[in-house]
Design a protein that fits this description.
Elements: H1 4-16, H2 33-36, H3 47-56, H4 70-101, H5 104-129, H6 134-158, H7 163-187, H8 196-224, H9 227-245, H10 267-274, H11 276-292, H12 298-305, H13 309-332, H14 340-360, H15 364-391, H16 398-427, H17 429-450
């Protein structure tokens, strides 16, 4: 024990250190009257202040750093349940509409009903999110979504006109549009900035885990249970998210300097246009999802091509999330990306390649494997894009910029579904999917040529919010 005596001597010196004098323990335990005041314990340490100092010493590289925030834990749990319900609803609506109509175009219309509210309300929703409590907006959106799901359950139970389904999807989509803008801007206020990338990664992990559970559960339940029961489960999940939001801290005070007047509605769009890195990443994700998504056509692939039935549909819908959760956990346990721009381009290229293979496949296991790889590639894109958008945006504009992000990404998912339905109706589902994968790869090449800043993008830790004053749209 050659180290025994030096260690004991060091402990003795620590015990003799006086307040206000530097020592190895000063970062946590040393205190001064100016720092802590006169009300101390008999150890000379104020417990709340000590707790904050200890929390500050948790390494930023910890894969669980974001979970230090109590509000983030509640938010994550509620969001997890909400996504499970929404994924179950998505699978159920697609299967019910397809079984009642047998039309690829009708499946495309489901995507269109989701896109219209995003296009119409996303910019005003971001303006609202920057002026009012983001938590309250999100809570209201969950109540409205829950009511719409209960109405869907009634329509399905009574076998009412299918047009009511599209109308209620419009209502639920409008509520979710306001919720998305508030949700994207709220999360950054729940954790310290140094932990935000970790929070995004775990949020993506929770989303993908729910996206595995929801479709798989829906596929199993659809075998023996009527559609209306699954809509009721989605309503219950929305109410659960509402309850989980109650104990989260209210949003920070938002600057009102640029959030008033009609012109403020478009500040987020001007900011994105003036911040080339954000514009490039959003554009890449926009066209990748617009061309490369095959989700809307999965009922056709499960029924006509792979002959897998509703249970197979559930697993096909879950497969991208299986890949995404594996990638998200991997990213959470690795150090932050040092070259996120190159990682983004490679991930989207891989997404296009596996989409082509999926479109050509006639084997259920191979199709499942390709969708798993597609989800893994897509998760890298989601983490990079969301982290860049939030870290480069001033807090007073995060609601509006999140709304612009939702216009591009949210509407591209739904418009992509409509595009897939239309092209599948014209040329067949295989050509629709394979052509979309090829277009995705072409988009990567164009982005790399037009926005060379993406190739030079450095580590996330080097990013700082851009100035609010951005060049006008010209």
């Amino acid at each position: 024990m050659k180290w025994g005596w030096p260690l004991l001597l060091h402990i003795q010196k620590l015990a003799q250190c006086r307040p206000g004098v530097w020592s190895p323990r000063r970062q946590i335990f040393n205190s001064t009257r100016e720092d802590y005041g006169t009300h101390k314990t008999h150890f000379g340490i104020d417990p709340p202040r000590l707790k904050r100092k200890i929390a500050a010493t948790v390494p930023d590289s910890s894969p669980y750093a974001a979970f230090e925030s109590r509000g983030y834990r509640y938010y994550l749990a509620g969001n997890f349940l909400s996504v499970i319900g929404r994924q179950m609803l998505s699978v159920t609506v697609g299967w019910e509409v397809y079984r009642r109509t047998g039309s690829a175009f009708a499946l495309g219309l489901i995507g269109l009903t989701g896109a219209l509210p995003v296009i119409a309300f996303a910019i005003p929703a971001g303006h609202v999110a920057d002026r009012f409590s983001r938590r309250s907006i999100l809570m209201c959106s969950q109540i409205i979504s829950g009511c719409a799901s209960m109405a869907l359950a009634y329509v399905s139970f009574t076998a009412a006109d299918i047009r009511w389904i599209f109308l209620l999807l419009l209502l639920a989509g409008s509520a979710r549009t306001f919720g998305w803008a508030a949700r994207g801007a709220l999360m950054v206020n729940l954790v310290p900035q140094r932990h935000f990338n970790n929070a995004v990664t775990w949020n993506s992990s929770a989303f993908e885990t729910a996206s595995i559970t929801g479709p798989a559960l829906a596929g199993i339940l659809l075998i023996h249970h009527p559609y209306w029961q699954l809509y009721a489960i989605d309503a219950a999940c929305s109410i659960a998210f509402f309850l989980f939001l109650l104990p989260t801290p209210p949003s920070k005070g938002i600057s009102q300097s640029r959030t008033t007047g009609f012109d403020g509605l478009f500040d987020g769009l001007r900011f994105v246009w003036g911040t080339k890195i954000v514009l490039a990443t959003i554009t890449l994700d926009l066209f990748a999802v617009l061309f490369g998504g095959a989700t809307a056509l999965l009922p056709i692939f499960a029924d006509r091509i792979l002959h897998a039935g509703p249970a197979g549909l559930g697993w096909l819908r879950s497969a991208p999330s299986i890949g995404a959760i594996c990638m998200a956990v991997t990213l959470a346990h690795r150090r932050p990306m040092q070259r996120p721009g190159i990682a983004l381009l490679c991930a989207v290229t891989g997404f296009g390649l596996v989409t082509i293979v999926f479109g050509l496949s006639r084997s259920f296991p191979l199709s499942l494997a390709m969708l798993i790889l597609a989800g893994a590639c897509d998760n890298i894109s989601v983490v990079v894009r969301h982290t860049l958008v939030q870290l480069l945006t001033p807090d007073s504009m995060r609601g509006r910029v999140s709304a612009v992000n939702n216009v591009f990404i949210g509407s591209s998912n739904e418009i992509g579904a409509f595009e897939s339905g239309v092209t599948a109706a014209w040329f067949g589902p295989v050509i629709s999917v394979v052509g979309g994968g090829a277009a995705t790869i072409l988009t990567v090449l164009l982005v790399a040529v037009v926005w060379k800043q993406v190739l030079k993008l450095g580590p996330f830790s080097s990013l700082r919010p851009e100035a609010e004053s951005v060049s006008p749209l010209t």
